[in-house]
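To close the section, here is one more complete example, presented without commentary so you can practise reading it yourself. The ligand is zinc ion.
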Amino acid sequence: MEIFLSAHLCMGMRGVCYHSARRRYPRLFQGVPIGFKLGIDLGGSKLAIAIADADGRLIAHQTRPSPISGDPEADVLTIAADAADLISRSDLAARDFDAAGFSVPGPIDHERGAILAPPNLPGWEDVPLRDKMSELLGLPVRLENDANAAALAEWRFGAGRGAHNLVYLTMSTGIGTGLILDGRLYRGHRGRASEFGHSCVEWDGELCGCGQRGCLEAYLGGAAWTRRLREIAPATSRVCALAGERELVLPEHVVAAAGEGDAFACEEMARFNHYLARAITALAFALVPEVVVLGTIATAAGEVLCLEPVRALVADQVWPTLIEEMRILPSGLGDKLPYYAGVCAASEG
Ligand SMILES: [Zn+2]
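Output:
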């Protein structure tokens, strides 16, 4: 387990911080509520837990492999124990917190505080996470779709600070989209917005994991792209050399090989940028955001391989009057994003 406790704070024996929060926040000694927030980001591969103060400053955080075992009852107990452990190592107690936030893969039933059946959490079907976790932690718990929570995090603490209209688009295993419109999170009817990844960009196109054809996710999603690469990457390409063998090729090998000028990797990046620009074009005409924040693959690929070509493609297609102030930016929070996503879920979920 990777554990971090803020370097600003007192570090006790063995790198564990015992008196950190109380030294930094003397009002805690007087029993005055500080309004700490506990943020938890539960993904298919990682569990990130963070503690932030009322201004959103991270006090402590840790990441470990996701404990998803197929038994949600046991998994919830593990997550709660991890969170309680981080709270106690920070010398805090549940009474010092306003709320806990859970950033989780959708879909979510907001009214019941339940996770419905996310593909990335096998065995988790209709799990009343909010009430179970609230009981275990002794705190009010709020749930938020992970893409919405990431959009909130980039808006409040990352690349989108100061904007009133922001689109967050991430391309990890699937596609996540979060919208901040007119200065607030847009959740849509019954809180089910954020599925732009399944809008059709090619009629009768590639088969998507959702069962439809031609979805954006079938072109930009990491899982779909990985499947494609393992079918078509030439054995002589730098992509296969970096991966070791074709069956192990991942999108990050394309990014690395394109950086070295490999022809196949450059073609694949051009295809990725093309579909990403299609997505941003549709969003730009519909929403006229000030900021489009791109996560994961686009952020890893960077300016030359992704952001500059995408900006040029979008500028060719969208009326200048709509995008003259629109900025297309990489994530501003990088690997801290899951912590801020959880913390933002505590505030807004
Ligand atoms: Zn789909």
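Once you have examined the tokens, check your reading against these statements. The first strand starts at residue 2 and ends at 5. Residues 102 and 143 are 5 Å apart (CA to CA).
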